[in-house]
Amino acid sequence: MDKFMFVFHSPYSQETALMEMSPEAMQAEIQKWNTWIGGIAAQGKLIGTDALAPIGKTMTKGGQVITDGPFTEGKEIVGGYMLLTAASLDEAVELAKGCPMFDSDGTVEVRPIINFE
Amino acid sequence: MPDKIVSSTEPGQLVSHLFRHEAGRIVSVLTCMLGFDRVDQAEDIVQDTMVQALQSWRFQGIPDNPRAWLYRVARNKALDVVRREKRFREISAETDYWLQQENADTMQERYFFDEDITDSQLRMLFAICHPAIGVESQMAMCLKILCGLSVREIAGAFLTTEETIAKRIYRAKEKLRQEGIQLEVPTDAQLLVRLEAVQKSIYLLFSEGYNSSNPDQLIRQDLCEEAMRLCLLLAQTPRTQQPSVNALLALMCFQAARFDARTDANGAIILLADQDRSRWNQALIQQGHVYLNRSAEGAMPGEYHLEAGIAMLHCMAPTYDATDWPTVLLYYDMLLGLKPSPVVALHRAVALANVEGPQKALAEVANLSGLDSMHHYHAVLGDLYEQNGQFEPARIHYQRAIQLTSSTAEKELLRKKIEKQ
Fold first, then answer.
1. Rounded distance, CA B319 to CA A78, Å?
2. Are B322 and B314 in contact (CB under 8 A)?
3. Was domain A2-112 assigned CATH 3.10.300.10?
4. Cβ(A90)–Cβ(A83) under 8 Å?
5. Rounded to a whole number, what is the distance in Å from the CA of A117 to chain B's nearest CA?
6. Residue B219 with chain A: CB contacts under 8 Å
7. Average model confidence (pLDDT) for chain B?
8. Which residue of B has its CA nearest to A27?
9. How many helices and strands in chain A, by DSSP H and E?
10. A55 contact B CB<8A
11. How many Cα atoms sit within 13 Å of B273 on the Cβ side?
């Protein structure tokens, strides 16, 4: 079993759209995610997953320049990630197919984690 | 409440409508805490809280006690707002006091105990259903603030635009501010008068869901469910559990029990006479009996008692023909005595036709006026003429009814009736 990381990219507009969601729609959104993540966890493949706040600092120039926000271009941000195990990159891609990210114009990057052993 | 009305938790799933219902509760609590002029701010805080939950629960799963999580986050946000602004004079005196104690835990205890949550909702309900506010605005406000529906969802339910609903809500809030309407449950003599207005609004909300021509069955069921929740709130609170409140809740249970059986798989209307009675929700009917029994105190049966009585007789009847029509007619007579209206008289005529024949009923309906633009009036007339073997006038009235109704399902039903002749 190899380790993989899913990186969830969402359009910045999607993050602000959350503020406009009705409580009912938010609950439905949570349920979609819980179902998908629960499915991966049930197969014993989930290592961990977290959401990233749409705020923060970006440091450049040897740490000399600190700007607000991770989204310098303002178009897309990393909204979260998941660490998991899968037999192959193909299987990891297969597992990512159900990700609710795709319902809201988001993208999922599937990256193998390098095993140096 | 039985399963149909308040769904139970399934493993791994959120309680049905948890977000929506908690949003409604927390807005009430925060508004009572901050004062009514800050209701918009309370709504913003709740929205913020919900977004925070969305972001974290998506990945981390639902906490063991989601409700407590939401209340804690919302409370902290509210305290932040109040502290940051330090405009104590604008905050209700009560909040001011608790803030000066510099003791957030005391504040939480004061406002976030179950009893106080219920109390906040009741205070909000009475304020919203104040007679100074138009009934349409009352319904929109109930759904927005107490039930946690979004403006878009409410617009969908009432088949109107978001702008219209937003205006109704805006006007209601302005009115509440201008009139200085207090967030309180009235006492003594005032209570019964104001309770009547609250019940009326709940009744209309339910009817909107039960009778509207909205093709979306789920939305309509939602409205009925929310109306029942608000009535349940009144029925479970000692101060407001008047006989008429239990009667109204009983009425809604009996009606809701038949909700699903009124349409077929394609959304076509099935009339009472043709409904599959095994599809009626027995749990709700039982619940209706419980509330109707509880309502049986006090001197005179009110209009909700009589309507609940009629609905109960329908629920009890094994078939349409075996319905206790004489008692239904008696209840309609009493209802007409309490609330003389041509609409009630029209319904009474249907019962009369089943007791004394269509000819008697036609004579009664002939005396009614002011109903000519109502499709239901012509549908009933068409039916009575048909029962009486007068097919030509029956057809004319069915056609008139088709012209007057906006519901495609009803047009379809009436067309079938004409064809059947």
1. 62
2. no
3. no
4. no
5. 30
6. none
7. 87
8. B19
9. 3, 6
10. no
11. 6
Is A19 close to B53, i.e. CB distance below 8 A? no
Q: Assess whether pLDDT exceeds 70 at residue B95.
A: no
Candidates A42, A23, A37; CA nearest to B149 is: A23
**Chain B partners within 8 Å of A29 (Cβ):** 54, 58
Is B56 an 8 Å CB contact of chain A? yes
Q: Give the Cα separation of B67 and B14 in Å (integer).
A: 11
Give the angle B300-B302-B305 at the CA atoms, nearest 5°.
110
| A48-95 tens-digit pLDDT | 999 888 788 888 888 888 888 776 556 778 889 999 999 999 999 999
DSSP secondary structure string for all residues of B141-154: HIIIIIT---HHHH
Q: State whether ipTM is beyond 0.90.
A: no
Contact (CB<8Å) A23/B148: yes
List the domain boundaries for chain A.
Answer: 2-112
User: Is A31 close to B14, i.e. CB distance below 8 A?
Assistant: yes
Alpha helices (runs of H) in B212-281, residue ranges in sequence order: 217-235, 243-257
Chain A: residue whose CA lies nearest to B18: A27
Contact A51 B55 (CB under 8 A): yes
